[in-house]
Amino acid sequence: MTSHLFAVRKPAILSEEDKIAWLRLARTENVGPVTFHRLLGRYGNAQRALEALPDLSRKGGRAAPLTPAKKEVAEKEYAALRQIGGRIITAACPDYPLALAATDDAPPVISILGDSTLLQRSCLAMVGARNASINGMRFAQGLAGELGRLGQVIVSGLARGIDTAAHKGALDTGTIAVVAGGIDVIYPEENQGLYEQIRERGLIVAESALGQKPFAQSFPRRNRIVSGLSKGVVVVEATMKSGSLITARLAGEQGRDVYAVPGHPLDPRAQGPNHLIRQGAALVRNAQDILETLNDFSGGGLREPYGTVYDAPFPMGEEADIPADLQDAVIGHLSFAPSGIDELVRACQVSVPAVQTALLELELAGRVKRLPGNRVSLVQ
Fold it and tell me: Taking the model in full, what pTM does it have?
């Protein structure tokens, strides 16, 4: 279920200056996707939001005011991306992918390199084990090719194993590689040749800054984009603790279909797909099994909240009567486990705008963290 909370208008093409302001805000410390869109809803555009950050973070208890990402750094990234043939797409741009726009924590800015028209086609994700078996690799590559010939663009994460096989199978029909680091960082290095092929014949997508090497938290963030771009996710070989099962869980939370290829009970790589099937995922033997049940996800009606320019500030409690001790109360009610904001409002016994304002200030101060599903937690 999505929770888009902003007063918005029709999509528009942003100027280069506007895009750089979006890039600066997206690259600023403590500004995650949910907070990014809330700031735009409150202040109307990225530039006004950038100007408000120091004061908001100070009110949240930050000792030194939060400094936005430097304009010259954003300009350098923007120019360098253009130089290698890429560009950025913001959530206000008409060509921002519909399916991704429908997710709670849609990235405000993505970098792309290659054929951007693939973002507007029907996409299906395929993920699985890095240490895949020969049979698993063969099946994934064949399935990806078959699905591609039937009109599906195959999305995966450019990892070794099943991801690699899926991309290879769909090179002739259309594939999107979502990378965990910057769009110019090839990981793993052994996939450099495949990366170049996808760049020429498919599309590379990244949320991270140009030149950013992947780190632990990069991979779950990448996985949510893999599933977010897609109507459904197919899992081929995965252990119970693999990132592929995280992608499947994210897909379910995003309202996507989940598919799994069954395997031998004694193979640890079959435990993940077999578990998903027991939990209700569709069993896959061939492409037809997927196409028979694939929901006709179009994102209809969901372009408006994220694919727009925010023309007027949203009254998010700036005029609200906020108790002086509200931030302490919010911190006191939260823990490291996520809590629903509705529950927090009831616990604090104040208005929704007041709590939302306190949360915004606390997050910019680095004290709380917003999560998809209208949830929040303390920062560990």
Answer: 0.87
